[in-house]
What does this fold into?
Amino acid sequence: MNRLIRIRIGLATLVIGGLLGLGGLLLRGQVPLPNLDVDAWAQAVTGSNYVLAQILTILAYVIPYLGFWAIYALLEQVENVEKLAFWGFMFSIIGTSLAIATLGIFSFVSPQIAVRYLQGDAQLPSIISQVVTGQAAIINLSGGILYLLGTVLLGLAIWRSRSLPKWSGLLITLNGIFLVFGFLWFPISLLSWVYILGAGLWLLVGPLEQNDLPSL
It folds into this structure.
């Protein structure tokens, strides 16, 4: 398997991640925070599809790691954008990783707490809100900032490279903006996964049509 094929496999993970993210959101539906509507939250997270949907969402966050690497691999020999691509790659991965712990709490702890709430323990749901706005807030905020910065840098590197489809860079950046600022709004969250799916498809098709790719 030559390097170009490995890079194409990496780019395909952006598409796979986008599909998984869309599938997870559509399967799960809108889930309010417990401090906004605790009864609706409890019904949502105890639904039969919730845990499966959250597993798909976790995979959607993690699998594109290889796609971010593939973008850097395509640009590492392009002198004017190599640093942008490297730091974009690094920040995107670190930012995503910082969010995984909280995502795991939402995925696997929330249903158990919701069951207890529906059985009469009204105090437990506040724990989820405390985790999000309290102890984990610094980690979540740092992760969001780093992921947003990473996608902006990757998008800028693609735009300036002259060897990759520049509009795919804009889609990568929009994914970061919509994912970070729109995670509580269902339509915006859906769009964030559409953007990374579109970017992956564009990059997957585009590079092989370019004659000025860096040496691979």
User: Anything to note?
Assistant: Residues 16 and 197 are 7 Å apart (CA to CA).
